[in-house]
Amino acid sequence: MILGKDEHAKVMLVIGREKRFKIYSEEGWKIIYLRKPLKALSFDRKSKIRPVPAGVSIGHINITAGTLGGIVLYQNEIHGITNSHIVTDKPESPYPPEEPQILQPAPYDGGRIIDNTIGFYVKHYPISVSEKSLCKIAKVKDVIYNRFAELFNRGTRSFSFTMLQGSENPIDAGIFEPAQRNIINEQIVDDNGNALEVKNICGLLFAGSTVDNIMIASRSDYIEKLLGVQFLYDIKIPDVGETVFKSGRTTGITHGEVLATDMTTTVEYNTGIATMTHCIVVRLRCAGGDSGSPVFIPKR
Asked: How do the domains of the chain map onto residue ranges?
C-alpha cells in the first residue's frame, strides 16, 4: 500500500513487501517502508511525563487519580499543588498520611512507587465532613432513589447523613515537595501538550456534575491565604459571566461561563458531606480525575 508520495524528491511511504515496490525502486524512487499506518499523534495526560506540567495525572499512592494544579511557592521553595483529596488519602484528617508518596501518573493510570514518585506530601487543608447515616431505613431510601435517578439520567442523588455538624470548608487544596529539582513546572498544557500563555490563575477544580456540566472550584485567593502559598501566575477572581478555562487529566481543556464566585454548597466526599464556601461555579465539562485542575484565564 502506498501511503504517500513526494513527486519532486521521488520519495515514497509504503506498507508491504519490497518486491511489490521493486518497479518504483528501479525508476529511482526512494522507498521508505513502514510497519504500521500513519496515525495522528495526541497528547496522553495519563502517561508518564517529565517534567510534569499542570493538567496531567497525579495522585497520592493510595487514591485513584487526580490532576496537578501547577506549582506554588511555599516557604520560598517550589511545591506542587492540587486538592486535599488528591494529595492525601484521608483529606478529612488534620494529620499527614501514613505514606507520603505522590505519583505521576496516578496509581489508577499505572503509577508505581519505584518509577513514578515525583514528590512527597507536605500539607493540606483538612476537609470537615458530616458522618454518613447508619439508619437502615435511610440507606434503603437512598438506594431506591439513586437507582431511579441513574435509570432516568438525573443529575441528583440522595445521600442521608446524621446532621450537618461539620465545619465550613473554604478550600480543598494541598501541596507536596518535588522529589527532584525541576521535575515539575508551572506550565499549563493544552490538549496537544503545548504550554499555554496564562494571564491569571483563578483556582483549583475540586468537584462537579458530569450530568449537568457544572464545575466547582476553590478560589486562588483563599488558597494562598489559608495554605500560606503563592501562585506563580497573577491571581484573579473572575467576574460572573466571564469565560474561564480548565486543564484536566480526564477531559483536557474545556471552558465555560462563570455562574457564581462566592457560592456556599454541599459536596459529597467518600466519607460524608462537606459544606464548601467561597466557591467558583462554572458551566463546563469535567469528570472524575479532573480534581485539582487549574482554573485559569489565558492570554488572548
From this structure: 2-33, 52-129+166-298, 130-165
* Nearest by Cα to 205 from 55, 37, 38: 55
pLDDT one-digit tens code per residue, 65-90: 999 999 999 999 999 999 999 999 99
Residue 44 neighbours by CB distance under 10 Å: 13
3-state secondary structure of 19: helix
* Among candidate residues 289, 194, 213, the one with its CA nearest the CA of residue 256: 213
Question: What are the grid coordinates assigned to 152, written together?
Answer: 432516568
CB atoms within 10 A of CB 123: 20
The dihedral over CA atoms of 252, 253, 257, 259, expressed in degrees to the nearest 10, equals 40
Provide the 8-state DSSP code for 56: S
pLDDT (tens digit per residue) in 19-58? 889 889 989 999 999 888 876 667 899 999 999 999 999 9
Q: Quote the strand ranges of 179-271, DSSP E.
A: 184-188, 198-209, 214-219, 230-231, 243-248, 252-269
Q: How many CB atoms lie within 10 A of CB 240?
A: 12
